[in-house]
C-alpha cells in the first residue's frame, strides 16, 4: 500500500531530501549530478520541496562542547495546569527559553520532556529556578554523561 508521502514525492525528491539532510551546503550542480538532473531542475525541485514544507530550514550544527556547553540535561516536568490558555502560555515560555534545545509534550507520568544545554551546574540551577516560576509541579533532571549517537537524519530511503 502506498503511503501519502510516496504519492507526493517521487524517488528523485526522496534522493534530494536524503542528500540535503546529510550535506545541506552541496551545490545544485553536484546535487543534480548525483540525482541525474540539471542544476536548474534541481533548484526548482528544492524550491518546491521548501514551499511544500518538506524542507523547513537549513542550519549549521554546532559542537556544543567546543562552545562550552558541557552540561546536557534531559528534564522531565509535570504541571497541574489543565486550561488550554494557561498551557499555551507555559509552552510559549518553554519555547522562548534559549537553553531548551527540544521540548516534547508526553503521555505517561510526565507532561513534558526538555533537552537543555547549559555551560555548568550554576547555569542549570538558574534554569531550574526559571522553570519553578512557570508553575511546574514536578521536575526530574537527568544529566547526559556522554553522547553515543546524535543525528538529525531521517531514514527516508529505507524500504
Explain the overall architecture:
It is built from 6 helices and 4 strands. It is 40% helix and 19% strand. It has a 4-stranded antiparallel β-sheet with strand order 2-3-1-4, covered by helices on one side. The protein has helices spanning 4-8, 11-22, 28-35, 39-51, 84-96, 121-132, and strands at residues 71-79, 100-105, 112-118, 136-143. By secondary structure, it is α+β, with helices and mostly antiparallel strands. A hairpin with a 6-residue loop joins strand 2 and strand 3 (112-118).
Structural category is alpha+beta
Q: Count the strands?
A: 4
Give the percentage of residues in beta strands: 15-25%
Task: From the alpha carbons, calculate the radius of gyration and give it in angstroms.
Answer: 20 Å
What's the N-to-C terminus distance?
13 Å
Rounded mean pLDDT score: 93
**Could you state the order of secondary-structure elements as H and E?**
HHHHEHEEHE
Envelope shape: elongated
- Largest sheet features: 4 strands, antiparallel
Q: Number of helical runs?
A: 6
Query: Could you estimate the helical fraction of the residues in percent?
Result: 25-40%
Unreliable stretches (pLDDT < 50, length at least 5) are: none
Order of adjacent strands in the largest pleated sheet: 2-3-1-4
Structure summary:
With 159 residues, the chain is an alpha+beta fold. The protein has helices spanning 4-8, 11-22, 28-35, 39-51, 84-96, 121-132, and strands at 71-79, 100-105, 112-118, 136-143.
Keyword list:
four-stranded antiparallel beta sheet; 159 residues; single chain; alpha+beta; 19% strand
SSE inventory with pairings:
Layout: H1 4-8, H2 11-22, H3 28-35, H4 39-51, E1 71-79, H5 84-96, E2 100-105, E3 112-118, H6 121-132, E4 136-143
Antiparallel strand pairs: 1-3, 1-4, 2-3
Helix pairs in contact: 3-4
Amino acid at each position: 500500500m502506498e503511503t501519502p508521502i510516496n504519492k507526493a514525492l517521487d524517488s528523485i525528491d526522496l534522493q534530494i531530501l536524503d542528500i540535503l539532510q546529510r550535506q545541506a551546503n552541496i551545490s545544485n550542480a553536484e546535487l543534480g549530478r548525483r540525482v541525474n538532473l540539471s542544476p536548474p531542475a534541481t533548484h526548482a525541485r528544492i524550491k518546491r520541496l521548501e514551499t511544500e514544507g518538506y524542507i523547513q530550514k537549513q542550519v549549521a550544527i554546532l559542537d556544543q562542547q567546543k562552545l562550552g556547553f558541557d552540561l546536557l540535561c534531559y528534564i522531565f516536568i509535570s504541571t497541574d495546569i489543565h486550561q488550554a490558555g494557561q498551557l499555551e502560555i507555559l509552552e510559549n515560555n518553554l519555547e522562548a527559553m534559549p537553553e531548551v534545545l527540544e521540548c516534547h509534550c508526553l503521555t505517561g507520568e510526565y507532561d513534558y520532556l526538555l533537552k537543555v544545554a547549559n555551560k555548568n551546574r550554576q547555569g542549570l540551577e538558574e534554569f531550574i529556578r526559571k522553570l519553578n516560576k512557570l508553575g511546574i509541579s514536578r521536575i526530574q533532571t537527568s544529566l547526559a554523561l556522554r553522547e553515543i549517537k546524535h543525528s538529525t537524519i531521517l531514514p527516508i530511503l529505507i524500504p
